[in-house]
Amino acid sequence: MSTASTNDPPAASAGPAAPIAQFFIPAAASLQERRPRTLKHGDTFAVFDHNGDALSGPGSPEGLFHRDTRYLSHLYLTVNGKRPMLLSSTLRDDNATLTCDLTNPDLFDDNGKLLLGHDLVHLRRTRFLWQAHCYERLTVKNFDERPQRIRIDIAFGADFADLFEVRGTVRAKKGRRFPTVIEQDRVLLSYIGLDGRKRSTRLSFDPQPDAVRSDLLTYELDLAPHETRSLFIEIGCDQGEALSPSFRSFFVALRDARRALQKSSSRAASVITSNEIFNEVARRSISDLYMLMTDKPEGPYPYAGIPWFSTVFGRDALITALETLWLDPEIARGVLGHLAANQATEVDPASDAEPGKILHEVRCGEMAELGEVPFRRYYGSVDSTPLFVVLAGEYLKRTGDLATTSRLLPHVEAALTWIDEHGDRDGDGFVEYGRLTAEGLINQAWKDSHDSVFHADGTLASGPIAIAEVQAYVYGAWQCAAEIFRRLGRPDRAARFIARAEGLRQAFDAAFFDEELGTYVLALDGDKRPCRVRSSNAGHALFTGISYPERAKQVARTLMSGSSFCGWGIRTIAATETRFNPMSYHNGSIWPHDNALIASGLARYGYRAEAARIFEGLFAASTYIDLRRLPELFCGMPRQRAQGPTFYPVACSPQAWAAAASLSLLQSCLGLDFDPNALQISFREPRLPTFLDEVTLRHLLIGSGSADVSLRRSGRNVVVEVIDRRGDIRIQTAT
User: Fold this and answer.
1) Residues 470, 463: contact at Cβ < 8 Å?
2) What is d(CA 318, CA 335) in angstroms, rounded to the nearest whole number?
3) Which of 34, 357, 390, 650 qualifies as a FRET site for 204, CA 20 to 30 Å off?
4) What percentage of the chain has pLDDT greater than the value 70?
5) 8 domain residue, yes or no
6) How far, in Å, CA of 408 to CA of 393, rounded?
7) How much is the pLDDT for 735?
């Protein structure tokens, strides 16, 4: 995938550095089994169970995290010494707050006498994140006809574990903990790392608890019949002296958090359809995208996913921005600006950096600062750089924003130079990858598991490896570079890039297409031997248009065959292949973003019916998933009637490019396109999937105006109706 980890163990032959080099996530605890509740704001995220607790222990991903460190590893609420029973646990539709409704179990004294029957005390935990704080209001209401004395205990702890430790890495040495500082209404937990940096967690309480220890606070509440009491808790990460929490500070922060979410998401077009379940999918997708968004100096930037990847990733953000370009172009502008600002300028083997190369990943934790993991500022992805150029070109086509494009031009040129001087390692015209350090990632395309690139007999490919989809991205980069230079008044440069693209297209067809397979091979290894494997990678050749039309027909047929398309989506590896395993990370699983890019490619070549089948499969899967939230991936088991998909145990959820997948699929089926110069929105051969009879898109931005459009099924056709337009905008339908 596009992260610095793989869920597969390192290859036995990789040598002593392999466990470090792979940074795999041990599947000791299933996220699907836990189905945690997640919150995020900025560089802070939290993972809680359904009760709102964070239970520490081996393999637990729960807690409050800030800048790749867990600042709170344990939070456990009890009523009279017993864990309350769960009534419900819900995230607001906009992900602003988590609300957990709980009630008391039967409570007995030491002699077994019933003191309080179940369901007489209601507890509601309302929680959100804002500016490196976790805010909570706990309301306790006595529904009994008699007064009750209720003891609320909240146990807490902070292990200050680096995220890579939480993921399973064992460290030989760690920093040291400071003694806990206890005051009447607050507790300070602190740690100094081996990097010399002090990290602290401050817990503050209002009203003042009846008792506070280094790991426990206690409230003794005397509640009259039907009386309600509210308790407020603030948990701050690396905060200085803070005011005591209060009713006012909680609600001011809540107001500000909701306003910020509303302001960012208001840029997006809205989607309303005839299918209420899909409306829930769309609302959750948009909410997840804007929750994962982090404001950078250059603009909004979608972090990759929770819990393992809540940070800057190049590839993830670029693909997410491409998926959502029709919905909110500002995301693409922010991504391009931030990646340009962090583009490599020199060779640094330790971080796999070369001049012009685009970021893979940034980490801020102790282990990254010390170099125990190489990801402090890491450039080990082969496709981020061409995708950067692709997004720059597509952003210009979508918006006509020449001012931003002109500012990006030096970075686009540096990226194109990297493709020539560093990406093409042997001068054969293809871009290959191979790590510059033994601590880097072995595979540096989006399928970055150690065993994701192999030959037909299952033998792992040796590098440098030219993987299929990267050649397609480079083709797209040459095409987009031509558009950029043409629009900036440099037709000579544009013509040269068009020629480069056509030359690559011919070479790619000759070296990668395999008539017997009926598709493109997975890769060429270091000896230029083709990896004759049917994979989803071939579908990305359709995404950028490198495929000749007659080849596209064969690729589409192979991708939609029963061995690849399992009913939920297209598998990463077809069931016919030696290493196929539907439960693996990259060798038979289904990734929503992968399917969205393939569907976009199918639509490009006119195969909208096939794109609609993919859309239907992923939508059907989402109807079985908690919160209607498509995860990072799920298992590639065949779809069975009246049964849901098989989940992958440690898939991230939410994940940005998975959240954007349904929105991208909708665009592909509708043939939605924009021409900012002509102020025209077009629908080319629109097709509605079987589960949608009508789609209304509001606030489609183009130029300084916008339009609201409705599409509805009429027999075998789709009728497009303009509801409203603001500005001199044209709507065109092509059949």
Assistant:
1) no
2) 7
3) 34
4) 94
5) no
6) 10
7) 73
Give the model confidence (pLDDT) of 247-298 as tens digits. Answer: 689 999 999 999 999 999 999 999 999 999 999 999 999 999 999 999 999 9
Structure tokens at 97: 């707050």
For strand 680-684 and strand 730-734, is the pairing parallel, antiparallel, or unpaired? parallel
How many helices (H) and strands (E) are present in the chain, helices listed first? 18, 35
- Neighbouring C-beta atoms of residue 122, cutoff 10 Å: 17
Do residues 393 and 478 lie in contact, with contact meaning Cβ atoms separated by under 8 Å? no
Sign of the four-CA dihedral 23, 24, 30, 31: positive
pLDDT, the chain, mean: 93
Whether 235 and 246 map to the same domain: the answer is: yes
Give me the pLDDT at residue 10, please: 33
Same domain, yes or no, for 359 and 309? yes
| Residue 202 to residue 191: CA distance in whole angstroms | 12
61 domain residue, yes or no? yes
End-to-end Cα distance, the chain: 37
Q: What is the CATH number of the domain that holds 49?
A: 2.70.98.40
DSSP assignment of 79-144, as one string? Answer: ETTBPPEEEEEEE-TTS--EEEEEE---EE-TTS-EEE-TTSEEEEEEEEEETTEEEEEEEEEE-S
Shared domain for 574 and 687, answered yes or no, is: no
395/492 same-domain check: yes
Give a yes or no: residue 580 inside a domain.
yes
In three-state secondary structure terms, 282 is helix
**What is the reported pLDDT for 3?**
45
In total, how many domains does the chain have?
3
Q: From 270, 273, 269, select the one nearest 712 (Cα to Cα).
A: 273
Residue ranges, the chain, pLDDT below 50: 1-28
For the record, the structure tokens of 108 come out as 């007995």
